[in-house]
Each structure stands twice: as structure tokens, then as C-alpha cells.
Amino acid sequence: MLAQSFETAIKAFGMHELEHPLFYHAKVAIRFEIGGEEPVYQKPGKANPAYISGALTRALSIYEALPEKPYLLRIDIYPYEQTAEALTEKICRCAGLPAPHETRTGVVEDEDEQLEQVSLYWDLSQIAFQPETLILEIIRGDIGGYKEFVSSVFLLAHGPVLYHLYDDRGLDVLGGTREIIFPLYTEFNDWILDYNLARIDAVFPEKPE
């Protein structure tokens, strides 16, 4: 049932299936810059705590401002070096999650090869969800953390609205309508990625003051 709800929402965003980068395939989406101005590394190989803290603040601020809190979590894993069971166990341990409520297995194209993809689903109304823990793991994924969290985590709220923090640099928020995510566009306009600003401005009928 969770997987079906997710697939229904994806169609509401204008996609036949989940397609990366989500921002470029959705009808209504905002791409936020999360990393900020701090340097990523304090010294070679060591992540800068100030950078991580700033990224966490931005990502959490947008999460807390969603029109509704997410009710569904999906995390995709790719068990080509480890078993799906081992990957699932590590994902749950790092993010403070119980075992997933649903699991779906499929195949995705990656350039010229096919990869097994396992999608894990949680009903957030049934667990003590800690968004800060999960968001921090995503931010750390490419800078010394666990890479399985990068571009693999999707939080779905009614509306529908999809929150997709893909790594420490950026966050896509998709909306079933322009109106439902317009408050995010106005409140966090200064955090919108400059490269995509013209495209995003064209989606919304009104501009922030």
C-alpha cells in the first residue's frame, strides 16, 4: 500500500516513474542550495563541522516549513556489493529506523547496465521518526558518511509534496500544484539555487516581495 501511494504521487508530479534529477522531470519543483558559503572541508579529508551545521540548519528549516509533515519514507538501496539485508540493517542503524514496513524489488538502468534496486518503505505515523538524524546522514553521505544515503531518500507528504535532499549540496521539493509549495518559494527564496532560479520563477504566478 505504501509503494502504491508513492507511485500515485509520482504521477501527480508529472512523471511516469521516479526519474533523476527529480527537479528536471517534475512539473512543479523548487531546487534549494543547502551547502551555503562555508568550505566543505576543514582540511583534506576532514569535513568542516560549520559547513555540516549550516547545511543541516537549511535542510531542517525547509523540512519544518513543509505544508504537512511527511507520512511516508522511501529509501532506495542497490545490493551489488552487499546483500539487501545487510544494506537495510545498516541504513536502519544509521538513521535510527526500525525494519521497513514494505519492500519492493526492481531493476533500473544505469548507463549501459541494469542494477537491482530495492525500495524500502516506512509508514511514519507508525514509528518514532527522527528527521534530524536522517537528514544529517544524507548531508554526511558524500563527505565522509555512508554513501547509500546520497540521492536515495524520499519523504512524501499529502498534497502531494515530495522532499528530496539528494546530498549536502541540494534539495528538491516537488508539489502536486504550484500553490501548495508557493510558501516555500517565498520564505526561502534566497536559498534557491541561482542556476535554476529563472526556471523556478517561471513556474510561480507571483514573485516574493
Structure, explained:
The protein is α+β, with helices and mostly antiparallel strands and 209 residues long. It has 7 helices and 9 strands; from the N terminus they run H-H-E-E-E-H-E-H-E-E-H-E-E-E-H-H. The chain has helices at residues 2-12, 22-25, 49-64, 84-95, 131-140, 178-187, 197-201; strands spanning 29-33, 41-43, 46-47, 72-77, 102-110, 113-123, 153-157, 161-165, 170-175. Strands 1-9-8-7-4-6-5 form a 7-stranded antiparallel beta sheet, with helices on both faces. Strands 2-3 form a two-stranded antiparallel sheet. The mean pLDDT is 94.
Features:
7 helices; 209 residues; two-stranded antiparallel sheet; single chain; globular; alpha+beta; 7-stranded antiparallel sheet
Structure described in brief:
The protein is α+β, with helices and mostly antiparallel strands and 209 residues long. It has helices spanning 2-12, 22-25, 49-64, 84-95, 131-140, 178-187, 197-201, and strands at residues 29-33, 41-43, 46-47, 72-77, 102-110, 113-123, 153-157, 161-165, 170-175.
